[in-house]
């Protein structure tokens, strides 16, 4: 999950050859269309045009909502546009109801692009190349992010917040005192680090999958990381979109590779039974014991919110981080797994909406949110001095340096699989079921239509 809330991505094929507004660039691959807005028209939902009000619906509330609104205040005053944000924890259901009933917001912030792409297919959302400088935007974003909102070649949303997952966290003082490699260049080198830690009498990996009805999702993240690194983004995309079956032999090999850690009693604290009974948010806590009971955890940037208060108060001295490395003999680049909140337009006729989107999806947005903590910009060009600590700056740097970004794979898949059988079969796998049987069972559960 990305900040526990997980996200989706789908891939597509073709687009239409048109430039809609002066200064707006054509979308790449100009060869087709997707009805409605995709054929050159403009979707016309949302609030009345030209009223100097722009309505936004999103999923995040509480402190995140306050930080989001604080990031808009100065721009609102300068532009004279009043941005009215509404938070809804059941965003996915609410946005469908509103759009289908003709009561859509001007802008929707999608934590999962699946519903967005449904709207794109229905011609109910505006392609971004009609109001954004597509090439300019793409040049500042982490590679691969815009693909998350691509439908038949056309892109229908742009990211305004990033969540990154491909990190290994460790207790800095104990780890460095042990003399362990802080920059392993491959998964094979990382395995050597794990062997050294084990030889010192410490479980190399901290791992917990327990998450109530979502138990198993941590394991799916590991599989996705390995598929991406062992076989590359093209195979990863084919797998998540079911162009190859879930039980393709390469995917089964990824399960077997993960078994070297997750099914080895000496590699994870408590062995497989401990993995399944440990809450994911508490998995790393034993690493801060003196001496540590386990040493490393692979997890997303949101994991910091679960660390003990004394650790958070001395974060830079207590916590170390490196990016989960590539697989030797696999994809040659450095991938990054994660998610993003994607901003999409339901009112393509309103100039104020376009202006808000131009700011919201730029590298100038988010300074106030970044300073408050818990937010990452999807832009490589964002001023990282806005981040509150060196750990967050390191996370942002690793994400910005990634050669390719891919969304959480289980969110790309149909819900029945991604947050259904993939989770439940991972639990059976950790309990002893074979990799082949696990992959076969998930493949058999894939919806037929």
Automatic annotation (TrEMBL):
Does the keyword field hold rRNA processing?
Answer: no
State if Transport is listed as a keyword: yes
Q: Which InterPro entries match?
A: Bact_solute-bd_prot1 (IPR050490), SBP (IPR006059)
One Pfam family here:
SBP_bac_1
Its signal peptide is 1-22
The UniProt keywords, alphabetically, are: Signal, Transport
Family from the record: Belongs to the bacterial solute-binding protein 1 family.
Name under which the protein is recorded:
ABC transporter substrate-binding protein
Q: What organism does this protein naturally occur in?
A: Intrasporangium calvum
Taxonomy-wise, where does this protein's organism fall, top ranks first? Bacteria, Bacillati, Actinomycetota, Actinomycetes, Micrococcales
């Amino acid at each position: 999950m990305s900040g526990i809330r997980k996200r989706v991505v789908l891939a597509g094929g073709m687009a239409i050859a048109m430039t809609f507004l002066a200064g707006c660039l054509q979308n790449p691959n100009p060869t087709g269309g997707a009805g409605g807005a995709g054929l050159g028209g403009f979707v016309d939902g949302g609030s009345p045009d030209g009223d100097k009000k722009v309505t936004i619906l999103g999923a995040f509330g509480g402190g995140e909502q306050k930080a989001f609104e604080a990031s808009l205040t100065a721009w609102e005053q300068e532009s004279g546009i009043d941005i009215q944000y509404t938070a809804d924890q059941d965003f996915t259901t609410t946005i469908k109801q509103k759009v289908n009933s003709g009561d859509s917001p001007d802008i929707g912030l999608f934590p999962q692009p699946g519903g967005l792409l449904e709207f794109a297919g229905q011609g109910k959302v505006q392609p971004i190349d009609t109001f954004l400088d597509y090439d300019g935007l793409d040049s500042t974003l982490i590679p691969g992010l815009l693909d998350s909102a691509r439908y038949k070649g056309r892109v229908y949303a742009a990211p305004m917040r990033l969540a990154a997952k491909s990190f290994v966290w460790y207790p800095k003082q104990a780890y460095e005192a042990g003399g362990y490699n802080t920059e392993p260049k491959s998964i094979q080198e990382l395995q050597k680090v794990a062997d050294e830690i084990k030889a010192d009498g410490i479980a190399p990996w901290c791992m917990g999958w327990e998450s109530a009805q979502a138990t198993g999702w941590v394991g799916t993240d590991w599989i996705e990381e390995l598929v991406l690194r062992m076989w590359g983004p093209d195979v990863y995309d084919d797998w998540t979109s079911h162009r190859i079956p879930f039980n393709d032999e390469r995917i089964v090999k990824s399960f077997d590779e993960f078994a070297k850690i997750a099914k080895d009693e000496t590699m994870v604290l408590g062995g497989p039974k401990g993995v399944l009974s440990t809450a994911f948010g508490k998995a790393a806590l034993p690493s801060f014991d003196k001496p540590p009971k386990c040493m490393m955890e692979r997890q997303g940037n949101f994991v910091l919110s679960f660390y003990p208060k004394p650790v958070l108060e001395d974060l830079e001295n207590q916590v170390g981080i490196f990016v989960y490395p590539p697989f030797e003999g696999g994809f040659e680049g450095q991938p990054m797994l994660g998610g993003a909140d994607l901003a999409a337009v339901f009112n393509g006729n309103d100039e104020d909406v376009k202006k808000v989107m131009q700011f919201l999806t730029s590298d100038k947005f988010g300074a106030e949110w970044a300073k408050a903590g818990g937010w990452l910009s999807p832009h490589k060009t964002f001023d990282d001095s806005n981040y509150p600590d060196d750990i967050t700056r390191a996370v942002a740097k690793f994400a910005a340096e990634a050669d390719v970004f891919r969304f959480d794979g289980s969110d790309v898949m149909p819900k029945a699989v991604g947050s259904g059988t993939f989770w439940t079969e991972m639990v059976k796998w950790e309990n002893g079921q074979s990799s082949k049987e696990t992959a076969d069972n998930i493949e058999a559960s894939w919806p037929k239509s």
